[in-house]
C-alpha cells in the first residue's frame, strides 16, 4: 500500500541506457550514411564502410525494438504540469515519431539490402550471415530492382527526416534545461538529482 500515490519522476536505468546508446549509434550512423555518399566507387574502403553501416543499422533496429518493448511495459514519467496542452501534445507527437523512425529507418535499410539485385549476403560485423527478409529470398533479380529502389528512396527520406527530428529533440531538451528549468533533461541522465530526491 506504500506505493499508492507514487508518481514516477525519472526514467529507469534500462530506459536511460538504451536511450543514450541508441542516440549515439544513430547519430554516428547518420553521419556515416552521409559520409559514404562522398566515397568514390574506386575507393576499396567504401565496401567495408557499407558492410559496417548495415551491421550497425541492424543493431540499432534490435535495440530500438527492445527500447519500445521496455517503454510499453514501463511507461515514461509524466511531463511537467507547467507545460501547456499544446506543448505536451507536440512532445507526445515528437516522441511517437522518434520511436517510429528509429525502427522504420533501419528496417527500410534491411529491406533495401534484402531486395538488392546483387544478392550479396548480409555479414553481421563479419561474424555470421544475417537473414534477409523472407519475401525477397526467392524473388527474381529483375523483380527485386523496383523494390530495391523504393526502399532506397524511403531509407534516404527517413534518414533526413530523422536528422531534422533529432535537431528539434535536442533543441527542446536544451530549452527545458535552460529556459523552463523543469528538470526534463535530468530525468534521462543517470546520476543527476531531481529536486526533492534524497
Mean pLDDT: 93
What separation lies between the terminal Cα atoms?
21 Å
How helical, in percent, are the residues?
A: 55-70%
The shape is elongated
How much of the sequence lies in strands comes to under 5%
Widest sheet: strand order? 1-2
Overview of the structural elements:
By secondary structure, the protein is mainly alpha-helical. It contains four helices and two strands, in the order αααββα. Strands 1-2 form a two-stranded antiparallel sheet. β1 and β2 form a beta hairpin. α1 runs antiparallel to α2, α2 crosses α3 and α3 packs antiparallel against α4. The longest helix has 40 residues. The N terminus is likely disordered.
Secondary-structure topology with pairs:
Layout lengths: L12 H24 L8 H29 L11 H30 L7 E3 L3 E3 L10 H40 L18
Antiparallel strand pairs: 1-2
Summarize the structure.
The protein is mostly helical.
Key structural traits:
198 residues; mainly alpha; two-stranded antiparallel ribbon; 2 strands
Amino acid at each position: 500500500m506504500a506505493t499508492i500515490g507514487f508518481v514516477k519522476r525519472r526514467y529507469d536505468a534500462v530506459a536511460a541506457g538504451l536511450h543514450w546508446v541508441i542516440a549515439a549509434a544513430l547519430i554516428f550512423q547518420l553521419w556515416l550514411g552521409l559520409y559514404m555518399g562522398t566515397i568514390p566507387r574506386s575507393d576499396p574502403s567504401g565496401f567495408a564502410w557499407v558492410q559496417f553501416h548495415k551491421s550497425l543499422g541492424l543493431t540499432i533496429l534490435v535495440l530500438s525494438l527492445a527500447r519500445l518493448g521496455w517503454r510499453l511495459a514501463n511507461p515514461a514519467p509524466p511531463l511537467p504540469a507547467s507545460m501547456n496542452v499544446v506543448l505536451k501534445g507536440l512532445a507526445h507527437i515528437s516522441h511517437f515519431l522518434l520511436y517510429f523512425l528509429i525502427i522504420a529507418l533501419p528496417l527500410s535499410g534491411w529491406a533495401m539490402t534484402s531486395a538488392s539485385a546483387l544478392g550479396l549476403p548480409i555479414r553481421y560485423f563479419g561474424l555470421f550471415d544475417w537473414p534477409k527478409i523472407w519475401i525477397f529470398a526467392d524473388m527474381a533479380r529483375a523483380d527485386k530492382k523496383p523494390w530495391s529502389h523504393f526502399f532506397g528512396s524511403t531509407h534516404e527520406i527517413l534518414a533526413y527526416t530523422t536528422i531534422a527530428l533529432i535537431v528539434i529533440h535536442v533543441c527542446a531538451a536544451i530549452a527545458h534545461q535552460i529556459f523552463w528549468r523543469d528538470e526534463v533533461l535530468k530525468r534521462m541522465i543517470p546520476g543527476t538529482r531531481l529536486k526533492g530526491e534524497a
